[in-house]
Design a protein that fits this description.
Immunoglobulin-like, about 25% strand, disordered N terminus, TIM Barrel, alpha+beta
């Protein structure tokens, strides 16, 4: 099984035991209103025709009936194919808080409800929650409602107008998902320093804060697609930029949700892993070489950073077959692969020693 949970069955087990599915967990369509012009069937067809195996339709609240979500039954009947392409229901819970002291006066605290079949109405809908509601309270309430509906929470674009701070997420119990790479322009995944000199965490740094505090959070990369036509516009929210590769028994709603819930996937903007082994001794990856050789020289280079507590870089390994041998004192280890075209892939954390936590351990711990 995958590194985040139980490590007795490595990901590179025999082909008959492993199924990898390319999925997008953040997809918008024109079903609920005018924000997106493309109908759900056409949106799903784009993903099917471009090599995806599953998508979650995560439209915002239906303006006429916020508890009603986009019905995926007709979409699957139209473009789905058993074992090859599946559309799963969901919703983006468009929570925000009106906070006059905050820059822009509105904190965006959106959460995807993956797998739900009934909508979760945000606090204060449609005007937003009052300033008396803290971000943590809003997240706690919406997480509870999503889980009650049988869904998986995914914290969306935490760096959108720098709305989310570590203190807002630390009270939340895992496991849950968080977008560490939201591919639409303007979501500030990399963080940085603003005009006042204040430094803002990248989404990866935020992830490490939560992992270091003992939270079980799995990182996703998503499209957050809103536009299926204007591919020449660099500002358009077009599809195909980021996704997750899910290891599941079969391409069904239950199986995909089970794998996401237990961290059996990795996130990527284009890098593919042919193998990912985790034992009590080491992590070993094999990266698929997608380069074209020119005069016998491989054109794409790969570098993998193995990252631990507080974002410490434990090792940097170059090449397509990186390994990391555990020292024995790590709380967790995760890998980030970057190639010379700046494509990335993120594995889920391998949890080692967690004081006071009943979280998963590597085999042999």
């Amino acid at each position: 099984m995958v590194a985040g949970v139980a490590l007795t069955a490595p990901l590179s087990a025999g082909a008959s035991e492993v199924n990898w599915y390319r999925c997008n967990t953040h997809t918008h369509t024109g079903a609920p209103g005018p924000e997106v012009k493309t109908p759900p069937e056409e949106a799903a067809e784009w993903y099917r025709e471009h090599g995806y195996n599953c998508i979650f339709i995560t439209d915002h609240e239906n303006q006429q009936s916020p508890e009603r979500i986009t019905d995926v039954g007709p979409i699957n009947a139209s473009v789905g194919k058993p074992g090859e392409f599946l559309v799963i229901s969901g919703q983006e819970v468009g929570q925000w808080i009106n906070e006059s002291a905050y820059r822009g006066a509105t904190r965006h605290l959106h959460v995807n409800a993956l797998g739900v079949e009934k909508g979760v109405v945000p606090l204060g809908y449609p005007k937003g929650a009052s300033p008396d509601v803290t971000p943590s309270q809003a997240y706690l309430r919406n997480f509870a409602e999503i889980r009650k509906a049988g869904g998986i929470p995914q914290v969306n674009h935490p760096n959108l107008v720098r709305s989310v701070e570590p203190k807002h997420l630390l009270p939340l119990d895992g496991p849950y998902l968080m977008e560490i790479w939201n591919a639409i322009p303007g979501n500030d995944n990399m963080g940085g320093v603003d005009e006042t000199g204040r430094r803002h965490l990248s989404t990866e740094e935020l992830w490490d804060v939560l992992l270091t505090a003992g939270r079980t959070v799995y990182g996703t990369a998503t499209d957050d697609t809103h536009n299926y036509t204007d591919f020449d516009d660099p500002k358009a929210f077009t599809p195909g930029r980021a996704w997750v590769m899910v290891r599941a028994k079969e391409l069904t709603r239950i199986s995909i949700l089970d794998s996401l819930r237990t961290g059996e996937f990795y996130a990527t903007t284009g890098i593919v892993l042919d193998a990912y082994n985790v034992t009590h001794e080491k992590i070993a990856l094999r990266i698929r070489d997608t380069s074209v050789a020119h005069a016998g020289v491989t054109s794409v280079l790969y570098s993998t950073r193995f990252i631990g507590r507080s974002g410490e870089v434990l090792a940097t390994v170059h090449g397509a077959s990186p390994e990391y041998k555990f020292r024995g004192d790590e709380a967790y280890v995760r890998a980030v692969v970057t190639d010379s075209s700046l494509r990335r892939a993120w594995t889920q954390p391998v949890f080692r020693k967690r004081e006071g936590s009943s979280g998963p351990r590597a085999e042999g711990e």
